Amino acid sequence: MNLRTDWLGREGYLPHGCGFTWDPSLLWSMVGADSTIAAAYVSIPLALVLFVRRRREPALNGIMLLFSAFIFACGTSHLVDSRRCAWPCSSPMTR
Prior knowledge:
Layout: H1 3-8, E1 13-14, H2 24-54, H3 61-83, E2 91-92
Antiparallel strand pairs: 1-2
C-alpha cells in the first residue's frame, strides 16, 4: 500500500455509533449536543475579536487573539466529534 492509504485509510476502524448500538435517538442527541457546543465555541472567539478590534489599548490584543484561536480550535474538536458518529475514525476494530 502507499503511504497516503496507510496514514489516511480507515480500514480496521469502527464508527463511533457502534458503541451506541446505532440507537437513533441517542446518536442524534450526541450530534446535536456537540453541534451546539461547537456553535458556542465559535461565537466566543467572534465576540472576543470584535471586542479587541473596538478597543483602543493594544497591550493585550495579541493575547486575546491567541486565546480566540485556542477557543476556536476547541470548537473544531466538537465538530469532528459530531462527525465521528458515522465516519469510522475513532478506534481500531477488534475481531
